[in-house]
Amino acid sequence: MTAVFTRGTLDGSEETTTGEPQPLAPRADCIADSAGGLTFDVTDPGEAGAAHLLLRLRESDPPVEVRLPLAPAADGSLRAALPSSVELAEGRWNAYAQVEGGEPRRLVPGVNDLRSLVDRAPSGSRGHVAVRIPYATKQGNLSVRAWLRAPHTEVGELCIDGTGLTGHGRVYGTALTGAARIEAVLRGDVSRVLHAEVTPAGTADFGFALPYAELADAEGVWDLWLHPAGDEGPRIRLARLLDDVADKKPIFTYPATRVDCVGGQVEVGPYYTNDNDLAVRVTAAVGA
After folding, report:
1. Mapping DSSP to helix (H, G, I), strand (E, B) and coil, where does residue 68 land?
2. Coil, strand, or helix at residue 261?
3. pLDDT tens per residue across span 187-232
4. What's CA 79's distance to the chain center, in Å?
5. Which residues contact 124 (CB under 8 A, 6 or more apart)?
6. Which one of 36, 73, 120, 282 is least enclosed by Cβ atoms within 10 Å?
C-alpha cells in the first residue's frame, strides 16, 4: 500500500506526494511583545549546519522573504527574533526552517503566547503601526499575518441600534482636527460617497455615528474611511488590528438591521473584511 502525504510549498499551496512517510515538521512556539516583535522557538530540525527561520510573503512575485538566524536556546530549541524594527510588508507570510544546504521545511505552530497583543496601544511615534500575528493555516502550518499602516485608524467597540452604527476610534501617525469626518464609499462605484460627522476627544480619539438610512438606497458593500483633517491630509481606512485575532471576519460578527428604502426594505450591518478593515454591507431583506 502506498502512503499519500501533503506538504506546504513555498508559494503557500499544498502538494501531494507518495512514498515513505516524511519526517515530522519542525514546530515553532511564538511569543509576541507589545512593541510588535515576535520570538520563534523552533524544535531542532535534526540536521547539522547553520539554520535560519525563513518568512516568505505569500503570492509575491518576485519572491519577497526575510531570513532570521536560528541560534541555540537554553531549552535545546533554536530561537529566532523578529524585532519590531524589521519591517514586514502587509500580507500573509509563510514560515519555514532551513538548514544550510537543505530545502526549507514548513513550520507547524506550537504554543502562541499573544497576551501582550490584547488591548495593545502603540505610541505611534514612528508614524506607522506594525502588527504581526502568528496563526495556523487551514492546512495546519504556521504563518504570520502582518499589517503596516501609516497612518492608522483603530476601531474600538461598536454599538448597533435601530437607526445606525456608533463607535469610537483612535488615530495613529497623524492628528485629528475639527474638520474630521467619516467617509463611506460604495465598493465598485467610487462616485457614491456619504459622510458622517465625528466627535473628536483630543487629537487622537474620536466618536462617530453612521446612520443606516443614508446607506440603504444602494445595495453592496460600503468601505469606511477617516478623514482626520477633512479635505486636507490623508484618508485612512478604519480597521481593527491591535489585538491577538488574525482573522476577525468569522469571530467578530454583528446583527443586521432592517431599514426602509425606496424599493422596500434592506438589511444593513457592519463586518470586518479579510484584511480586518471595517465595512457595512447592504443586502435585500429576505421576505420583504
Report:
1. strand
2. strand
3. 999 999 999 999 999 999 999 999 999 999 899 999 999 999 998 8
4. 25
5. 151, 152, 172, 173, 204
6. 73
